[in-house]
Design brief:
This protein is an alpha+beta fold and 317 residues long. The protein folds into two domains: 120 residues, Gcn5-related N-acetyltransferase (GNAT) (Aminopeptidase, 3-Layer(aba) Sandwich), CATH 3.40.630; 143 residues, Gcn5-related N-acetyltransferase (GNAT) (Aminopeptidase), CATH 3.40.630.30. The strands form two sheets. Strands 1, 2, 3, 4, 5, 6, 7, 10, 11, 12, 13, 14, 15 and 16 form a 14-stranded mixed β-sheet that branches. Strands 8-9 form a two-stranded antiparallel sheet. The longest helix is centred in the last third of the chain and has 17 residues. It is globular. It starts with a strand and ends in an 11-residue tail after the last strand. The C terminus is likely disordered.
């Protein structure tokens, strides 16, 4: 059997990528729109798996600013499934992340995707939380709420303390941007505040509620990745976000949240519905044995080869 080779992706691999992703999610896969950015990503690695010179799989890893490796876009050609390609990509990706000095690796899957969930469990990754995906189209105009305003970068510490005190965030210390999870930190919040992505409700000078809403390019919708406050505060924040989407001519607002009953009711009251039947699961593993030779790992990442085994292959992560 010809060994499987994993190497850096090249621009000329686009045609193979299109062929692999053409039938994913009935032709709506996001990978083609992300491909060019992934190729140019200075903080990541876009890899392909080749069988006898033919590209049969791909995967991207982004190194987030806290040195977490975020693994995404695992895809395997239909003809190459059940031959260990996904296992090889994930295993190599974890080793590359370890060599690059990452301490943690994470990825997300759908709760209704047993093959992907078996794959990541076999790689030693455990589920750390689940998030519900909701969406509303053509959001209505917002109510004027004087107590809501964008948080300033200098308020990042106070916003952080407020968010991590919430039961929806305290367990994982993660927030979402679509189906990507990020560690919630003061440093990250400073960046989000500077970009105008954090909205807060103030009562008597104190933060009573907050939300993180980012824009998804090139898909042109807002993503709510954290939401805290009492019932009235949640409703006000959501209405404000819907109005912001309308003001900027965005057709849709999506929320991927670790929900409690109050937040879910507030979202449903303004038209949010679960757009995906399954939950988003975030899996995590701690990477030990970091290699001191991380500086040479990029040069050596094209020399991996192995003869595939035969585990069950995942459908798209």
């Amino acid at each position: 059997m010809v060994p499987l080779v994993i190497r850096s992706a090249k621009p000329s691999d686009r045609a193979s990528m299109i062929a692999i992703t053409r039938t994913v999610w009935e032709g709506t896969d996001y990978v083609p729109s992300a491909w060019d950015d992934w190729i140019r990503d200075p903080n990541g690695f876009l890899m392909v798996a080749c069988d006898d010179g033919e590209v049969v799989g791909l995967q991207h890893i982004e190194i987030q600013e806290d040195a977490t490796a975020w693994i995404e876009g695992i895809r395997v050609a239909e003809r190459a499934r059940n031959r260990g390609v996904g296992e090889a990509l994930l295993g190599y990706g974890l080793q590359w992340s370890r060599d690059m000095g990452c301490r943690v690796a994470r990825l997300s899957t759908s709760s209704g995707n047993p093959s992907s969930n078996r794959l990541v469990a076999k790689a030693g990754m455990r589920v750390v939380g689940s998030w519900t995906p909701l969406a509303v189209r053509r959001p209505a105009a917002r109510r004027q709420v004087e107590s809501i305003s964008p948080a300033l970068a200098g308020e990042a510490d106070a916003v952080y303390r407020h968010l991590v005190a919430s039961s929806s965030i305290s367990q994982t210390r993660l927030y979402t941007e679509g189906w990507t999870a990020h560690t919630l930190s003061v440093q990250r919040l400073r960046l989000l505040c500077a970009l105008g992505c954090v909205l807060v409700v103030r009562h008597h000078g104190h933060i009573a509620g907050a939300t993180i809403a980012t824009c998804a390019k090139p898909f042109q919708y807002l993503r709510v990745g954290a939401l805290t406050g009492d019932t009235a505060t949640l409703s006000s924040l959501i209405q404000y976000v819907l109005g912001r989407a309308q003001d900027t001519a965005l057709e849709e607002v999506r929320a991927t949240l670790h929900l409690n009953g109050g937040a879910q009711q507030a979202l449903e009251d303004v038209g949010f519905r679960q757009w995906h039947t399954d939950l988003m699961l975030v899996h995590e593993t701690h990477l030990s044995g970091v290699s001191p030779a991380s500086a040479s790992s990029r040069a050596g990442r094209d020399v991996y080869s192995r003869t595939p085994a035969c585990p069950t292959e995942p459908s798209p992560v």
